Amino acid sequence: MFTGTHEGADSSTNLRSERAMFRSLGVDPALGQYCENETQSTGGQVTAATDDEVTVSGVTWDYGDTFSIYKTDTKNKFISRITVDRSRGWKITKHDEVNDQGWRHEDWDIDDRGRKKVFGPGQPER
After folding, report:
1. Global pTM?
2. Which DSSP letter does residue 106 get?
3. C-beta of residue 70 within 8 angstroms of C-beta of residue 44
4. Cα–Cα nearest to 85, from 57, 106, 67
């Protein structure tokens, strides 16, 4: 949701980033969001937020520490396990049924693999 650098004082209990617009852009303690101090490898729940500052339970910040704020209550938690295939817009619940380009394996034909000199059925390649 957010990444950045702490711009406040060392040993601060509040994460500070000028012009970040934390609260206006969705950081809300009522949502149980997780915030990590990546520099110090610590993290916790967001307990307060304004547009310029966020308070995180049990985390202190030094100037220049990098942070990530997640939409979920833990780091790297899935929001949804549904994938939508790009060829037809079908919802797919098993990620391995879709390739890295977002297509179902059976719909990923030779034209989509970067070989642009392929003709239709029964026509020779040149």
Report:
1. 0.62
2. G
3. no
4. 106
